[in-house]
C-alpha cells in the first residue's frame, strides 16, 4: 500500500446497548472529524449490519457537537442496534453498499458476535479485492471479550449492580428474609461478582454468589442459603442469569426457548430464574419471606449511573480505533490491556479480529473463591478502579437501652 | 390538661422502606433534641411494634449528628421495619413497655397499616388512662394515603420509575420490540403513572399504561399492544403490579398465595406478572421480541435516586409531628396538603389517625385518560413538582443519506 487510503467512513452499533456505547460512537465521530486528510463523509448505519444492507444510512458529519455530547451521555445505542450475523449472500449486499458509498473505513462497536461480523465483512472485502479497513470497537457489559482486561460498558453496569445491591441489602436488613438478585451475564460472572462491592460493613450482603463458571447445584444452593439464614436471620444472594447445571445446561433454559440469530437463548427480560430459585428456597427451607429481583435491562440503561473511568475509556478506545485505521490501515480490534503496577493504567492494543470473535472469556479462577459461592480479594483489586466511588451507606450505632 | 406533658419519646418505622423514610426518622430525632422541655430520652424501637413488644429499644439521643445525617441520606428503614398489626393481647404488652420506659410521645412512620397500628395503640392507652401522644408520620411510595396530596417516598420512587423508563425506552428504540415494565402499586396506579414523565419527545414510551383503578382486560391489552406495535414497530408498556380483572381479582394473585399479617398478597419480589403478560403477547400476536422487567425493590431502595422535594418534605413532616405532639398533645397523623395556585406549595395539617388508617386512596379519575390506558395532562401537572429534574436524553438528528 503506497498511496494514502482515502474514503468515507461507516460506523454502526451492534448487540446489547450499554451506558457508554454512545460515548464510543461519539468518540469515533469526533476523531474522524479530526482526520480530514483520510476520512471524507462520516456515515452511520441504523441498526448495525441490517441498516447497511437496507441502505439506511445517516450523515453523522452533520450532527452538531452539542448534539453529539448529549448523545454521548445517553444510554442505549443511538444508531439503533441489531443481533445479526450476516449470511454469505448478505455479505455481498453489504460489500456492494460499501462500494456504492466509497466506504474505506468501517467501525463496528459491539461484543464478540460483532467482532465476528466485522471479521466476516473483512474477509468478504479481501476476497473481492476491495480495500476496506474493518475495525471492531469493544463493548459488552458482560465483560467477556477475550484479549481485554475489561470492556467498555462493564464498569458502568457493574456500578449499577453494586448500587442496586447496596440498596437491596439495606432494604433486606429492614425487613429480613432471603433475597435473590438475578444479574446479567450469559457466560461470565463478572457482573454478578460486582455485587460484592456492596459489602461496606460486617454482615453486609451479598452473602452468596453464583457464577456461570461453576456448576450450579440446587441442593448445595439451598444448604448454603439455609446456613447463612440461620447465622444472620437473612440472606442476600447474587446469581448470574447464565448459571448452568453440572451437565452444562443453563438453569434458565429449562423455562424459555427463544433463540437469537447467534444461537443465544433469551436469559434477560424474564423473571423465571429468580422465581424458580425463590420457590425452591421457600419450599425446601420453610423460610417464608423469600423475594427475587431480576435487574434486567435496567443494568445497561439506567440514566446517570455511569463509571467515569468506563466512560472515558469507551471514548478513548473508539478514538484509537479511528486513529489506527487511518494510520495503519488493515483490520483489527482494539483491546484494553491493564499495565502491571499499583496504579491503575491501561494501554490500547490492536489485536486480530479473530482473537476476540466468537468465543467469550470467563472469569479467571483466581477471582472465584474455592467455595465456588464467593469472589476473592483479587477480584476486588481488579474491579475497584473500573467502577470508582460508590455511595456510602449510613448506619445507626444503635446503642441498646 | 393543665401541667405540661413531659416524658420520653419512642419512634419506629413500619411497612415497606423508602428512599426517604430515614430522612423522616432523622428529622423527628433532631426536632426532639430541640424540644428538651418536653422530651427526655429519644428511644427507637427495632422493627416497629415487634421491637416494642420485645423490648428491643435503642437510644437515639446518643447518635451523633454526623451519623444521623448519613442515615438520613440512606435508603431502607434504619431502625428496621415490620409488617404487623398488633393483636389485643399484644397491645397490652406494648402499653406496658410504654409505661416502663415512661414514654409519652410515640411516633410511627409508615403507611395506612401503620396509621391503623398507631390508632390501635392510641385506643389502648386511652382505655387504660395512660396519657400517650400517638403520631403517625406518613410514608408510602404507593402514594395511596387518604387525606394527603402525596406522601413522602412517592416522589423519589417516582423519580426512579421515570429514570428507569427513560433508559428502557431508549434501549428498546435500539433493539425494538415489546417491553413491559411492572411497577409497584398495590391499589393505586400513581407510581406506574409516573413512568409517563419519560416522554420527552414524540414517540417516546411508555405508550400504554395500566392501573389498578381500571379493570384489566387481557384481550383489550393485546389489541392495544398490537396496534401500537403496528404503528411504531415497538411498544413500551407500564403496568401496575396490582392490576385487577373485571371481578376485582388481582391478575398477579393467580400466581402467588403468600399473605402478610395485614392480609396483603405478595405482589413484589416476583417476575410472574410480567412473564405472564409477555407470554400472552408473544402467543397471541406472534411478535417475537417481548421482554418484561419487574422493577421490584429497586424502586424504593436504589441509592442516590432521590427527589429533593420529597426528601425535604419527609424531614419537614416528621419535625412537624414532633412539634405538634409537644405543643398540642393528643394523637394525629400529619397530612401533606397542596395549596391552590400556580406555584407549588404545601401545608402540613393534623388529621385524625382514623382518617388515614385502613383504607387507601386511588388515583383520581381526572388523572386517568378515558381510554383507561394512559394518564392525563392533569396528572403531569400534579407530579412534576414532586419529582423535580430528570436526565435529558440526547438523540441524533439522524439526517438520512
Q: Give the strand order, joined by hyphens, for the main sheet of chain A.
A: 3-2-1-4-5-10-11
Q: What multimeric state do the chains show?
A: homodimer
Distance between the termini of chain A: 82 Å
- Work out the number of β strands of chain A: 11
The class by helix and strand makeup of chain A works out as alpha/beta
- Beta content of chain A comes to 15-25%
Contiguous low-pLDDT stretches of chain A (5 residues minimum) are: none
Structure description:
2 copies of one chain form a homodimer. With 401 residues, the first copy, chain A, is of the alpha/beta class. The model of chain A has no long low-confidence stretch (mean pLDDT 94). Chains A and B meet through β3, α3, α6, α9 and β9 of A and β3, α3, α6, α9 and β9 of B.
Structure summarized in a few sentences:
Chain A is of the alpha/beta class and 401 residues long.
SSE layout and pairing:
Two copies of one chain form a homodimer.
Chain A: E1 7-13, H1 21-33, E2 39-45, H2 48-53, E3 57-59, H3 65-72, H4 88-100, E4 103-110, H5 112-127, E5 133-138, H6 154-174, E6 178-183, H7 190-194, E7 208-210, H8 218-232, E8 235-240, H9 272-285, E9 290-294, H10 298-301, H11 308-328, E10 332-338, E11 346-351, H12 353-356, H13 377-387
Parallel strand pairs in A: 1-2, 1-4, 4-5, 5-10, 6-8, 6-9, 7-8
Antiparallel strand pairs in A: 2-3, 10-11
Helix pairs in contact in A: 1-3, 1-11, 4-5, 8-9
Amino acid at each position: 500500500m503506497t498511496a494514502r487510503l482515502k474514503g468515507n467512513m461507516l460506523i454502526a452499533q451492534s448487540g446489547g446497548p450499554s451506558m457508554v456505547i454512545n460515548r464510543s460512537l461519539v468518540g469515533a465521530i469526533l476523531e474522524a472529524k479530526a482526520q480530514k486528510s483520510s476520512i471524507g463523509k462520516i456515515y452511520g448505519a441504523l441498526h448495525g449490519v441490517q441498516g447497511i444492507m437496507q441502505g439506511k444510512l445517516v450523515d453523522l458529519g452533520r450532527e452538531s457537537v452539542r448534539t453529539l455530547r448529549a448523545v454521548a451521555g445517553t444510554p442505549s445505542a443511538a444508531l439503533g442496534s441489531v443481533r445479526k450475523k450476516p449470511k454469505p449472500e448478505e455479505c455481498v449486499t453489504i460489500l456492494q453498499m460499501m462500494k456504492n458509498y466509497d466506504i474505506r473505513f468501517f467501525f463496528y462497536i459491539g461484543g464478540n458476535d460483532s467482532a465476528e461480523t466485522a471479521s466476516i465483512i473483512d474477509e468478504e472485502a479481501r476476497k473481492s479485492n476491495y480495500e476496506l479497513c474493518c475495525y471492531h470497537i469493544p463493548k459488552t457489559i458482560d465483560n467477556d471479550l477475550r484479549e481485554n482486561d475489561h470492556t467498555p460498558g462493564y464498569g458502568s453496569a457493574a456500578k449499577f449492580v453494586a448500587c442496586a445491591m447496596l440498596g437491596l441489602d439495606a432494604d433486606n436488613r429492614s425487613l429480613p428474609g432471603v433475597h435473590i438478585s438475578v444479574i446479567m451475564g450469559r457466560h461470565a460472572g463478572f457482573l454478578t461478582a460486582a455485587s460484592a462491592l456492596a459489602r461496606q460493613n460486617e454482615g453486609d450482603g451479598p452473602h452468596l454468589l453464583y457464577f456461570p463458571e461453576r456448576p450450579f447445584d440446587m441442593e448445595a444452593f439451598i444448604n448454603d442459603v439455609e446456613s447463612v439464614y440461620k447465622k444472620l436471620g437473612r440472606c442476600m444472594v447474587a446469581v448470574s442469569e447464565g448459571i448452568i447445571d453440572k451437565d452444562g445446561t443453563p438453569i434458565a433454559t429449562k423455562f424459555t426457548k427463544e433463540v437469537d440469530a447467534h444461537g443465544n437463548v433469551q436469559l434477560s427480560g424474564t423473571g423465571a430464574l429468580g422465581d424458580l430459585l425463590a420457590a425452591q428456597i421457600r419450599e425446601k427451607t420453610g423460610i417464608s419471606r423469600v423475594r427475587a429481583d431480576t435487574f434486567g435491562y435496567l443494568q445497561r440503561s439506567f440514566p446517570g449511573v455511569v463509571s467515569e473511568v468506563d466512560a472515558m475509556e469507551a471514548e478513548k478506545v473508539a478514538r484509537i480505533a479511528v486513529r489506527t485505521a487511518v494510520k495503519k490501515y488493515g483490520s483489527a480490534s482494539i483491546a484494553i490491556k491493564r499495565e502491571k503496577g499499583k496504579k491503575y493504567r491501561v494501554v490500547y492494543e490492536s489485536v486480530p479480529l479473530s482473537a476476540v470473535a466468537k468465543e467469550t472469556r470467563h472469569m479467571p479462577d483466581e477471582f472465584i473463591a474455592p467455595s465456588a459461592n464467593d469472589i476473592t480479594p483479587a477480584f476486588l483489586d481488579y474491579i475497584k478502579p473500573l467502577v470508582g466511588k460508590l455511595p456510602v451507606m449510613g448506619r445507626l450505632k444503635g446503642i441498646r437501652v
